[in-house]
Specification:
TTHA1013/TTHA0281-like; TA_system_antitoxin; single chain; about 70 residues; alpha+beta; HicB-like; HicB-like antitoxin of toxin-antitoxin system domain-containing protein
């Protein structure tokens, strides 16, 4: 499944890891020791988030791509 959700990726000194946040999916985050590992982990977590939402009957947000903040 092609993921089109926006990912916010940053290095965390505190965690010594790359952190990935998926703002369109509440609470959806992943990490990894490398940038690529963090993104790969995020893909798994996004799929698990969607599967869990389906099981619980929660709405699944449409991927909007890049979000605009002000």
């Amino acid at each position: 499944m092609l993921m089109k959700y926006e990912l916010i990726i940053y290095w965390s000194e505190e965690d010594c890891a790359f952190i990935v946040e998926v703002p369109e999916l509440p609470g959806c985050m992943a990490d990894g020791s490398s940038y690529l590992e963090a993104v790969a982990n995020a893909e798994v977590v996004i799929q698990e988030w969607i599967e869990t939402a389906r099981e619980l009957g929660w709405p699944i947000p449409e991927a909007k791509g890049r979000l605009t903040y002000s």
